[in-house]
């Protein structure tokens, strides 16, 4: 007699679990990106650094790191301005470029873990 095998497809559960893992990975990567960018954000009184935030739109699967002061954009783009040692213009873009592989790994880890389980 042949053994009987029963398979149950739980595609919706797998999809929901995978999406939750993807959102968690994105959140983790964004928070890490903000933390790393804050290490080189121009620093006078700390207002600019404290304005840094992460926004995650779970429905669309999109997220942003931003700084919200009236001068944040200009401070970011003015490459001719002097900064304290270790601080720099274009701190957010440069951080994302420098940490791209790490950010990808952080974002992928929860998805990979979800697929293993």
Describe it for me?
By secondary structure, this protein is mostly helical. The chain has one domain. It has five helices and two strands, in the order ααββααα. Strands 1-2 form a two-stranded antiparallel sheet. A hairpin with a 4-residue loop joins strand 1 and strand 2. The longest helix is centred in the first third of the chain and has 28 residues. It is elongated. The model has no long low-confidence stretch (mean pLDDT 93).
* General form: elongated
The total of helices stands at: 5
Largest sheet: 2 strands, antiparallel
User: Can you count the beta strands?
Assistant: 2
Distance between the termini: 32 Å
Provide the structure class. Answer: mainly alpha
Number of domains: 1
Could you name the ranges where pLDDT drops below 50 across 5 or more consecutive residues? none
Question: Tags for this entry?
Answer:
single chain; 117 residues; mainly alpha; 5 helices
State the gist of this model:
The chain has 117 residues and is mainly alpha-helical. Helix content is 54%, strand content 9%. The chain has one domain.
